[in-house]
Amino acid sequence: MEKTEIAEIKKTLDLKKHCAIEKIKTFYIDEEKNVVSVSEKFLYSIEEEKAFKYLDMLKKALSGKIGKNLFDINFKISEKDAKRETLENTYYGKDDKKLEEIVHAVINYYPYPGKYLIIIGFGTYDVPKKSKDHVLLDESEEVYSFMLTAVCPVVLAKDGLCFDKNENDFESRTDTWMVDKPDFGFLYPAFNGRSTDVNAALYYAKKDLHEDMVGELFGVALGNTSEKEKEAFSTIVQDTLGRDCSYEKVKEISNMMIQRKIDAESNEDSPEISKRELQKVFESLGVTEDGIKQFNRSFDENVGAALKIESLVDKTTKIKSDYVDISIDSGNADYIESRVIDGHEYLLIPVADDITVNGIPIRSEREA
Predict the structure, then answer these.
(1) What's the rounded Cα separation, in Å, for the pair 299 and 289?
(2) What is the tens place of the pLDDT at every residue in 4-23?
(3) Which of 121, 13, 136, 114 is nearest to 63 (CA)?
(4) pTM for the predicted model, two decimal places
(5) Residue 29 class from Cβ within 10 Å (0-12 exposed, 13-18 middle, 19+ buried)?
(6) Half-sphere exposure of 215 (CA within 13 A, CB side)
């Protein structure tokens, strides 16, 4: 799913507007992997403050960076897939036995040692049509039915004082168990192309990917993460440029990737960069014919299809060696330049009025 599609679904989880979630089902699991409590309620029958908290947890399962926290899960369309059929029979909320299969897959493969809460929201969204200039219209295009799951650790809050409204005083708080932010979750079916896609899901991971559990839940591998794509891109750049892998060329490639990301976000261009498009980037840098051959070999070995542009752009440019560690906003990387002085190559940072060293403002030699 693309960022705009994820954001559109996330916006439907607003209690103050017409919330898409109709029903909430929860499973409370203890340290022994026992189902302690099961609850099923319609959203608008839940106390408002509690409903807000449920929705907040579900929203977090649609948050983060694509490739780092959010991952597309794609089923094999040509084959009969038992995992996909289980999800298909569950998301309408019409098969409790299939839902129990999903819950027990989580219980058996989620390695968390403590208590946790599985929150499942069932919803429907009347998908409005979009005009040619991307304005949402009142007319509905289709009804998108979905299930959104968030698995949240239940943690013991720190001892302290808390305000008791009934007593109108502060009381000591001990042994208070709190539902923490989701560790992982998923949306099924996916909302690809602003339409129901039963052959795909969106998976969320806060930090640990839990790849064994992904395989058990969906029957497919997770695919490349943002870090893996970044490592593959680094290898391709090194293999292609070889001894010509200078700071200036790496900076130029970075600038082109930043511009490509801006174009993808503003013009709805593809969020992926193809092999041919990346080859043109290297050709524009004057890479030799042998370098292009190295590029083709390296791309096929490390990527194969395409790279997500989101994975290739960092907010900061980091320069590291054994004795220096510099971070600068990627948009300001041009302030650093490479220059050869007395046979040695240096990276130069202009001294400006606002430069400090350990909090002490410094002056340039020209001012002294």
Answers:
(1) 15
(2) 899 999 999 998 888 999 99
(3) 13
(4) 0.75
(5) buried
(6) 5
